[in-house]
Amino acid sequence: MKSYRVRDWNQHFENPASRKLKRVNWVAIPNKTDGEGYTALVDHPNGAAHLGAWYAIVEIASKQTPKESRGNLPAGIPADFGGFCRSLSRMSRLPAEIFMEAVPRLVEIGWVEEVLSNQQSAEVSAESAEVLAESANIPSEVGVTGNYKGRELKGTEGNGNGKPCNQFEIDRSAVWIWFRETFSGEIKTEWDLQIFLSVIEGFEDIKLLRDNTPLWCATKKWKDGFGPTAENYLKKRQFLDRPPAPIKTKAEQRAAEWEAVEL
Length: 263
Description:
Layout: E1 3-6, H1 9-13, H2 16-19, H3 36-42, H4 47-62, H5 81-92, H6 96-109, E2 112-115, H7 118-122, H8 126-135, E3 146-148, E4 151-153, H9 165-182, H10 193-199, H11 203-217, H12 220-223, H13 230-235, H14 250-262
């Protein structure tokens, strides 16, 4: 059974205020009406109805709980495409036939994406996980779900970047192990795994965490033991930024000037 989610949900339909809320009573919808996606959607005899179905889908996706699941769409009963569309119909009070027409078009346009079910994700082989972890130069003893002190490292369906959720889960699990083990000396306090899961939402977060954390740990402030707790480091998303270049002392500045003169 195929599952569906709104593509790039976190990028387009969340903002700093909504990300703090466990439940939302509103959703921010972009108002661009001259883009390729919008014009392609409404360029159809039933384009207006399909646009209404799209807005209903966004509203339904915004109500999913927990907040990490926002963007996902319910599988429906029975768990087939017809059941999925009837489920959307019941929640939105719109005809199921409209969703049966609109959803394939939204997938084609790229606003909705198909994702692996939980069962399909669990079937990803350990060999694939090892290859991905090795290619990222991080520990390979991790599968689709990493394990830390008996707690499973699980994420949400999909990843907000249009890539299969199984690869995202493998990468995020491996980075969790790498981050915890490699920087346990610099990170001063024990922290909750759930903070990591709520913050690392896409492949770009994974890349920036791996690229910038070693740079922060190498700064004088962190080496002297005055760096932030890991919880604050993640919640404030400090890993998105590279640390500023260290300020040179006057002696270092004079040495650099003399070196430039000699050259």
